[in-house]
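Our consortium's second objective concerns turning raw sequence data into structural hypotheses that experimental partners can test. To show how far this objective has progressed, the report includes one record in full. It was chosen at random from the queue rather than selected for favorable results. The single chain below, 529 residues long, was entered without modification.
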Amino acid sequence: MSSITRAFIATNIFCILLGQSGPALIPGSDRSEGQGPFNRMVIRGGTLINGNGSPPIGPVDIVIEDNRITRVQSVGYPGVPIDEGRRPKKGDFEIDASGQYIMPGFVDLHAHAGSPQKAPITDYVYKLWLAHGVTTVRGVGLASLEFSLSEKNRSESNKITAPRIWAYQRPGQGKDWRGGKVQDPQTARKWVRYAANKGVDGVKLVSYEPDLMEALIDEAIKQKLGTTAHLGQTGVARMNTIDAARLGLGTQTHFYGLFESMYEHNDVQPYPVNMNYNNEQHRFAQVARQWDLVKPNGEKWESLKKELLELDITLDPTMNIYAAGRNVMHARNAEWHEKYTLPSLWNFFMPSREAHGSYWFDWTTHDEIAWKKFYQIWMQFLNEYKNSGGRVTTGSDSGFIYKLFGFAFIEELELLQEAGFHPLEVVRAATLHGAETLHKPLGTKPDFGLVAPGYLADLIIVDENPLANFKVLYGTGAIKLNDKNKPVRVGGINTTIKDGIVYNAKQLLKDIENMVIEAKKKDGELIKY
């Protein structure tokens, strides 16, 4: 029986147990991939690109005991033989990383685990993440509260092949929550306490009314829970980024609320009179028209930047998820779709008046130009915020708008570089800064995000230099001419290590490819248009 068949049987059983008639999201299957953790693992001879902004150094040997890094030892100099006398003693498992590059595992701060309609098998999503070096995700509604916490615990004990999961849930979630809808401050505080008792790590917010937002954030801080907010257009006029930051919001995700905090001549976006938020093309086309409502480096711009820095809010831009708006043809024809995108997910991407983010009803050159201009302004603010000492991180929000799990995360790295980040700053955003963001509400020092003694053994090994070209991190690699003047593909992550368990990243991608082949046999080829 194939893995896909077993998964669909499991879906039906899971639905029955939950008393549902329709399909449900399938939990990760029992782990059968990966080697370790080992009593003593040694990675030898690689060049380390760390998450703290320091320059690459190598060759180094890295010692891992169980799932912790215990030693990072420089063992020589480039271009000369390694000094064997400086090398750590032999491990019971060794990886030869000579000529390769080692980085901390990546942190994706905006993650969803698919859905029954798009990608019902979470193994598909988890393996795509791990194959692209993502070893930690913040689920911002990964799925239901119970599902998220169950998968979080199973990942923590390495019972499934999945990144580490931090569960941020939406107010009101919880199968046994009996407090009613979260519509007033008192109920809001009760739900936050309920969620904290359940074991969530944080709260995913939207642009709630000010009194409700204040109660949710204040109670979350008291319970040492993190907060992140998508300050959507339906409430942003009363709860923008600076409003939420003043209440203590930890992370603003996407861009919503940022531009609205510094309009030059408006207090509410001047929408066209036929605007309808439930029209997905209106929703996504009009938001880009904010680009000329703000003045870069004007008084309001500088004031906002200064106050956000003082309030120490993290910006998690997720630029990749909107990037199709500035070139839909590029996103639709990305080379990985044919091999790695499930038919069900591809069909969700098709233009639709009902599917969220499938807003290509009549996408025009005008729309793409507006998004291009919007990105220029948005990127400038992000780069200046980083240059001033602000924390900018990496999130993907994959599963919408032609963005595929894992692949979209690597695109986020490229977009940060486009915004002006040095590649070392990009790596820091994707590793240490993500870890700091997650640990900040707890008041604790991160134990991942760096390759250093005492940190968890979350690492990536790739045979090409990602600082020279982030494209080598895509599962499809990058195209170069070899010395025989022939185009060849290079790169793709070789090894992902999470919690000291060694995964063959290329085999994980092969597993995904086989899932897609099976799904196409059942559902047909990807629908083209």
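The partners drew two points from this record. The first strand starts at residue 38 and ends at 48. Residues 1-169+431-529 form a domain with the Urease, subunit C; domain 1 fold (CATH 2.30.40.10). Both points have been shared with the crystallography group to help prioritize constructs.
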